[in-house]
Write a structure and sequence with these properties.
The complex is a heterodimer of chains A (184) and B (198). Chain A is α+β, with helices and mostly antiparallel strands and 184 residues long. Chain A has helices spanning 7-19, 152-162, 171-183; strands at residues 35-42, 52-59, 66-72, 75-81, 84-95, 99-104, 114-116, 121-132, 140-147. In chain A, strands 1, 2, 3, 4, 5, 6, 7, 8 and 9 form a nine-stranded mixed sheet that branches. The radius of gyration of chain A is 17 Å and the shape is globular. Chain B has one domain (11-196). The longest helix of chain B has 12 residues, at 11-22. Strand 9 of chain A pairs antiparallel with strand 1 of chain B.
Chain lengths: 184, 198
């Protein structure tokens, strides 16, 4: 199932990832209505790691519902989401032997559904990728299983340390306050 | 959740094509008595979604996929059964293709049947995504019925496509007015609202 490389479709995926970039979402990182939304996916059992990811805004309706997420070794996050309803939409990545892969999440029954009513810090959870058997002519399938580690605090520390522009933004204090709360 | 890679990227399209071409035919939409045979019934009803599909909520990016826009595919069978897992193309045989928020008129045998569930396409193209509606409704046709109004089935959902409530609404007057325009007044439209299966 994972042994073919399609140049044309690779280009398609590239276009898709470009389409998922956060153009039109040019919000200031210090905008007080922003929320930080983050999570983690262990892709050890997947055909590829993830190089890009997007979250879909499902409410309120918008012409540009896809928000790109920063991705670093399984950690994915964005610090720019305004209040609304969201769920993970797609992950993608490529590997030398398995080629380009796009991991699509369902619109219905998506376990990462999140409703943000108040700006804040929202942890979507840590998950492990699991292959699901599918028929020969069926689309490949997968599921994600919730895992206990890394914890919310582990990931917030990583965002603070590794996140581009986070340390120099208003998020620094908010993340530290959240970490202090989690310690209690 | 679906995984697409070069080998199977088109399978979402194939699924849609199978529904369009390979599944047994739908209950045919009719506009007058000329298309209705002996022993057949015109089934009149309506499906509403609350809130309705928002602009851009369906992403149809493939040629001809526009014909799936604003359509709910109601899986129907004379035997009541619970759909287990992803419906197959066989489950769509005898379906009703209902345009949301519009009265449908389809021809059917004059035997009772069950609505097992429904499905709308949310994305066909760069990915494939669907939402399923709950079923468990009985359509109480009787032998000899010529035209039956089964009601408006109103599905209330949230933004994540979780269905919160299903109600059966009697909108007979409006449906009957539309029926008379298409089919005339010779044969009355009998009211037999769908009922939840116990």
């Amino acid at each position: 199932m994972t042994g073919r490389i399609g140049f044309t479709l690779g280009l398609f995926a590239l276009a898709l990832s470009a389409g998922c970039a956060s153009s039109g979402h040019e919000r200031n990182i210090n905008d007080p209505t922003n929320s930080l939304v983050f999570g983690y996916i262990d892709m050890d059992d997947a055909p590829t790691s993830i190089a890009y990811a997007s979250i879909q805004q499902v409410a309120p309706p918008t012409q540009e519902p896809y928000w790109s997420l920063a991705v670093r070794k399984g950690l994915f996050y964005t610090a720019y989401l305004p209040p609304g309803s969201y769920q993970l939409s797609k992950f993608g990545g490529s590997a030398f032997f398995t080629g380009e892969h796009v991991y699509g999440f369902p619109r219905q029954g998506n376990q990462t559904a999140l409703r943000i009513e108040k700006p804040g810090i929202y942890f979507l959870g840590s998950y492990k990728y699991r292959d699901v058997k599918s028929g020969m002519f069926e689309q490949g399938k997968f599921s994600i299983d919730a895992i206990n580690k890394p914890t919310e605090a582990d990931l917030l520390r990583r965002i603070l340390d590794e996140g581009s522009g986070i340390k120099d933004s208003a998020w620094r204090d908010r993340i530290q306050a959240r970490l202090a709360k989690l310690k209690r | 959740m679906t995984l697409r890679h070069p080998g199977v990227r088109l399978s979402g399209l194939l699924l849609a094509a199978a529904l369009a071409a390979c599944a047994s035919p739908a209950r045919e939409r009719v506009d007058g008595w000329s298309a209705v045979g002996a022993g057949e019934t015109v089934v009149v009803g309506r499906i509403e979604l609350v809130p309705p599909l928002a602009k851009g909520e369906q992403k149809m990016q493939v040629i001809n996929s526009g014909s799936f826009e604003n359509i709910v595919f109601l899986m129907a069978d004379e035997n009541n059964r619970t759909l287990k897992g992803e419906p197959t193309s066989a489950d769509f045989g005898g379906r009703i293709e209902a345009t949301l928020e519009q009265t449908f008129f389809v021809r059917s045998s004059d035997r009772p049947f069950y609505i097992l569930g429904g499905m709308v396409w949310l994305e066909i193209g760069s990915g494939s995504n669907k939402a399923y509606f709950p079923g468990g409704l009985r359509v109480a046709l009787k032998p000899g019925d010529k035209a039956v109004y089964i009601g408006t089935v109103r599905y209330q959902r949230d933004e994540f496509w979780n269905f919160k409530k299903v109600s059966i609404v009697d909108d007979y007057d409006r449906a009957n007015s539309e029926y008379r325009k298409k089919f005339g007044t010779r044969i009355p439209l009998r009211k037999a609202l769908v009922t939840p299966v116990k």
